[in-house]
Amino acid sequence: MSNARRNALLISVGGGKGGVGKSLVAANLSVALTRLGMRVTLVDADLGAANQHTLFGLTNRGVTLHSFLEKDVGSLEEALVPTGVPRLNLLPGTSGVIGAAHIGHARKLKLVRHIAALDTEVVVLDCGAGVSNDVLDFTDLADLRVVVTTPQLTALQNAYAFLKGAVVRGFRHAARTRFEQDRFDVASSRVETERLDPWLRRLELESPALVAHLRVLQQSWGGYIFGNLLQHDGERRVIDGLVRMVHDFLGVDLGTLGHLRSTASAHASVTQRQPLLVAEPRGEAARVLHAAAERLLTVDVRGLRERRRRPPEAAPAESAPPSSEAYELQPSDPSNEPSHVETSRLADHVRRHTRHPARSSVPLHHRGRVADAELVDVSTGGARVRTSLRLERGDEVSFAVSVEGRASMLVAVVRWTEGELVGVELRDPADGRALRISAGLRPTSDVGELPVDARAS
């Protein structure tokens, strides 16, 4: 969205629904990043309903992000407030000012430029909830996008709507003609659970170079789901279901950044106006948030930025648009893939095919070649493998596994592939029948270890 040179890593924290703990996650993630030695600026970009100053026990002294927009101060640095946490400053937002939640396009561009140019190592943007253009634009500004949700179905639905809005809004920013922008306005106005791929295929007939770039944006979206307020570990599968739905309907692969249980300590940290990681620096929440911060800092952000930059030669020529129906999101063939998911179907979708994290390094064999690979996760429907081998649908691969302590070779058939990430169906090497997996892989030094209850169906 901005052409400003970005010196800092920009991380947005958003959500589709209020009350999911978005601001709490943003605040404590910021603290965790400082514990890793980073200089962090937390920007309360929840326009009109800011509360980060309250979470840090600060009194809003009147100089805020809104003060900068109104030209009461000349720079964002003048509005920064020390939080009391070493290496962490806060740019307070605005609360209770009528009209503050809606800023004009020119002022928004100015704000984006100045946020991107802040003298810091990491900027954490606490975005508002919902799918307003201002919220989605702050999300699009970020290098890495964290979406917070709870396991409640309504929160999952709103998180999905937020994610679709953010993806389509990012597509619109990639457009260079009015015709292309109009197509994205159509997409963002349609039913939230329609698939993007049929629409992209139609748009590809008119703007193949643009769609090629949009598919790169899908693959480099840099998004993560953070599950909050879980009551028990079993609710992780519901959060994982949202990740699957985003892949299936939006073509975007999200990482799962962490899961936090609902605890009295987290609630108390808000009422006591002290970040949870300050009150309990060695608790379970601290371990989860520190791991999340470490993961974000290991991302190749420079590579993400390069991939997202649209090549100049890809700019399409301006042309008169055909009929408005030609590129609308339309229902898929009902005998093939349904394009609309009712609320009950959404509930089924997020419970289907529980994926168990694996993170096992395995030697992958394919047509006489051997390459190191990583088993990402497994489910009753197969496994996901990350490999540098060039594979195609239908290819057979095999890798070393341990079943009940005995090493063997497991056959897998490639069902889909997107670059290095490959989906495979696991097969019994003896008779070729599909294996059903009902527990997770456990990493070992040189092979993946299958659970003892892996069996042929």
What does this structure look like?
The chain starts with 8 loop residues before the first strand and ends with a strand. The chain is globular. Mean pLDDT is 77; it is low at 1-5, 96-100, 314-351 and 438-457. It is built from 15 helices and 18 strands. The strands form three sheets. Strands 3-4-2-5-1-6-7-8 form an eight-stranded mixed beta sheet, with helices on both faces. The chain has a six-stranded antiparallel beta barrel with strand order 9-10-11-14-13-12. It has a two-stranded antiparallel ribbon with strand order 15-18. It is an alpha/beta fold and 457 residues long.
Number of domains: 2
Structural class: alpha/beta
Q: Which runs of at least 5 residues are low in confidence (pLDDT < 50)?
A: 1-5, 96-100, 314-351, 438-457
Helix content: 25-40%
CATH superfamily of the largest domain: P-loop containing nucleotide triphosphate hydrolases
Shape: globular
In DSSP terms, counting alpha (H) and pi (I) runs of 4 or more, how many helices?
A: 15
Radius of gyration: 23 Å
Q: In whole angstroms, how far apart are the ends?
A: 50 Å
Major sheet size, sense and barrel closure: 8 strands, mixed
CATH architecture of the largest domain: 3-Layer(aba) Sandwich
Give the percentage of residues in beta strands: 15-25%
Q: Count of DSSP E strands?
A: 18
How confident is the prediction overall: mean pLDDT? 77
Strand arrangement within the widest β-sheet reads 3-4-2-5-1-6-7-8
**CATH level 1 class label of the largest domain:** Alpha Beta
CATH topology of the largest domain: Rossmann fold
